[in-house]
From TrEMBL:
CDD domains: LolA. Residues 1-25 form the signal peptide. Keywords: Signal. The keyword Signal applies. PANTHER family: OUTER-MEMBRANE LIPOPROTEIN CARRIER PROTEIN. InterPro entries: LolA/LolB/LppX, OM_lipoprot_carrier_LolA-like. It comes from the Bacteria. The keyword Glycoprotein does not apply. This is Cell envelope biogenesis protein LolA.
Length: 213
């Protein structure tokens, strides 16, 4: 599995690095009840409190693939995602750009954070409105799911955030990419808060092609 497909599947970078300019119809916003709007407000408040996060994850691809790794978030605009061996690829958001390292090809590519889906979860203030359109909302028992797209690029893909309620916490996300493939990423025992090493969020090309230890 290539780095690009891993990045796309994980919902970290849904927008192509060099995409042609396309005109998309305005996304259809979900018709939300007052209760659903209240839940969204609670989710926004919860996410505002998630300044740092570290978690192992399991990523299940639409092609049947299953990979594991670790993700670190430091809002605003910083992230690191590493896959467990033998995958040598990793992703770093340093505050301005998202860098993609292909361990097999030993090549780095990058894009401004604002041009990627990572912007939705890394921005300083997360609001589900304006440049983020809510296209779906579901509640079942103690689970809340909210689906969103980039208002200006709805064709880039749909990100569905899945929260466990009582207490409210992010448990997983699903990505529907432009090709119609669905991938799910489940967080395992996420740790919210605490200090993270700032070096995590500096892109450095591995001297031996391996990920950071």
């Amino acid at each position: 599995m290539s780095l690009r497909s891993l990045a796309l599947a994980a919902g970290i970078a849904l927008a192509p690095l060099a995409a042609p300019t396309l005109v998309h119809a305005a996304p259809a916003a979900a018709a939300l009840t007052q209760a659903q709007k209240s839940d969204i407000a609670r989710i926004e408040q919860y996410l505002a409190g998630v300044k740092t996060l570290k978690s192992e994850f399991i990523q299940a691809g639409g092609d049947g693939s299953l990979v594991k790794g670790t993700i670190w978030l430091s809002r605003p605009n910083k992230m690191r995602l590493e896959y467990d061996p033998p995958i040598k690829d990793f992703i770093v958001a340093d505050g301005w750009f998202v860098f993609y390292w292909d361990g097999e090809l030993r090549q780095q590519s990058s894009a401004p954070i604002g041009s990627t889906m990572a912007d939705i979860i890394l921005r300083d203030t997360i609001r589900f409105g304006g440049d983020i359109t809510v296209t779906g909302f579901e509640r079942a028992a103690n689970v809340i799911e909210i689906s969103v797209v980039q208002t200006s690029e709805p064709g880039a893909g749909t990100l569905t955030l899945v929260f466990e309620d009582a207490p409210l916490r992010l448990r997983k996300w699903r990505v529907n990419d432009p090709q119609g493939l669905t991938t799910e990423v489940a967080l395992l025992n996420p740790q919210v808060g605490g200090q993270l090493d700032r070096d995590l969020f500096i892109f450095r090309e591995p001297a031996d092609g391996q990920r950071r230890d």
